Amino acid sequence: MSETDVLVVGAGAAGIAAARALLKAGLRCQVLEARSRPGGRAATDTATLGAPFDLGATWLHAANRNPLRLLAQSLGMATFDHGSARESVCFDAGRRAGPEDMAAYDATWETFHTRLGALVPLPGESAAALAARSGFGGGRWDATVMHWEGPVICAAPLAEMDARDYLDTLLEAPDLLLPEGTGTLLARLAAELPVSYGAVVERLDWSGPRVVAEGRFGRLEAASTIVTVPTAVLAAGAIRFTPELPPETAQAIHDLPLGLLTKIGLRARGADRLDLAPFAGIERRVEREEEAAMTAIAWPFGHDHLMGFVGGPAAWDLAKAGPAATVAFAFEELSKNFGARAMAALRREGALVSDWGRDPFSRGAYSHARPGRAAARGILAAPLAEGRLCFAGEACHPSLAATLGGAWETGEAAAAHAARALRDRERDKERQPLTPALAWRYAAPATDAPPPTGTTDEG
């Protein structure tokens, strides 16, 4: 195609949602996706471990308000409430924590959000500073909870996150899992959409009445464009905008960086399941929030693999060192808890490691707002040029940021902006009075007389 009504850049959750909404509204659209597959930062590997393994987005968080829950069910995909089977197994210096320690750990978890939520964040305050102001940080389990809340859940240290944005984007239960994987869900939702794969957009010219996209795929014009690529990719200048984006939009992109959460899949070597039930969570107590550590979920859905997580600065360091270093780190961590038994029970060969940090089309996992920049999500989501240029994606959502559901809703919102802009322009054309030159052109009966003096045959 050389032209369309609306161009969508990116076939992740936001792009798929936008395209479906546009087609439903009767508009033409074309999706340009840099990868060879849909789904963006949701990808399900079904071969390496002999079972589905989500390399990126895994849960349908806040499922009671997550639009993907009903979409999954409409496709006949069963959902599983992870909370119904969640069991934490925590180790402290190689010893499995007993009931008394686990009760203290759980109590620390329960008070964290309550204590932070009871305070009004100060302007520019980080989530770490808010936690300190609440008196949190000196208890035996405080660092472990903060490690979870920062590097593991948010993929970045609490000191790098705005306190207001942190509280606004807390997610409630239930957290649903799809046995077939979230990447599988998005692939099915994208199955019949007009997507061009391997189409890397290098330039977007939005200086005129139509937006022009260019890359090795050629040139494509559209009345409006929706850009859904991650903020880290935009901040790196992967797409050149003409004219440059407004300063406030460009600043919002830089104020919403991506953290990193790396996932590791390790398959069992034999029958030993380390005395862990399916979905058991493996943790260990840490001394500092920033301590490099791995958490894991054992044998999801009864499969014979562990699903490990390393987040924040440790994940970035391992990404630079490569997958083999990440696998070696995973075994080091498991050996701290299970000793030599971990090496005997799990295979090093055939391990699966996500690589979002080095992926040029992601450059990270999901977004957080820098301290003092909680407003950046709304700024980035605001349509430009009367809806001719819109941004969408998880970074644009005020409460479901860092989730597939948030990305989906922003894609639908951007599609509504683009469709409204298109309708408004069409209505304006119909209402626009004819210039003398056009009046002469369309006058009846036709005449060969020249247009009135002082006019041009344009407009």
Top keywords for this entry?
Polyamine Oxidase, Chain A, domain 2, globular, single chain, FAD/NAD(P)-binding domain, 8-stranded mixed beta sheet, alpha/beta, 34% helix, 18% strand
What is this entry, summarized?
This protein is an alpha/beta fold and 459 residues long. The chain has helices at 13-24, 67-74, 99-117, 127-133, 142-152, 163-168, 182-189, 231-235, 247-254, 313-321, 323-338, 340-345, 376-381, 404-431, 436-442, and strands spanning 3-9, 29-33, 44-45, 53-54, 59-60, 80-81, 87-92, 95-96, 176-177, 195-197, 203-205, 211-215, 218-227, 240-242, 261-267, 280-284, 295-298, 305-311, 352-353, 389-391.
Q: How is this structure best described in words?
A:
- There is one protein chain.
- This protein has 459 residues and is of the alpha/beta class.
- It folds into two domains: 3-63 and 68-78 and 178-257 and 361-424, FAD/NAD(P)-binding domain (3-Layer(bba) Sandwich), CATH 3.50.50; 80-176 and 261-353, Polyamine Oxidase, Chain A, domain 2.
- 34% of the residues lie in helices and 18% in strands.
- It is built from 15 helices and 20 strands.
- It has helices at residues 13-24, 67-74, 99-117, 127-133, 142-152, 163-168, 182-189, 231-235, 247-254, 313-321, 323-338, 340-345, 376-381, 404-431, 436-442, and strands at residues 3-9, 29-33, 44-45, 53-54, 59-60, 80-81, 87-92, 95-96, 176-177, 195-197, 203-205, 211-215, 218-227, 240-242, 261-267, 280-284, 295-298, 305-311, 352-353, 389-391.
- Strand 17 and strand 18 form a beta hairpin.
- It is globular, with a radius of gyration of 25 Å.
- The chain starts with a strand and ends in a 17-residue tail after the last helix.
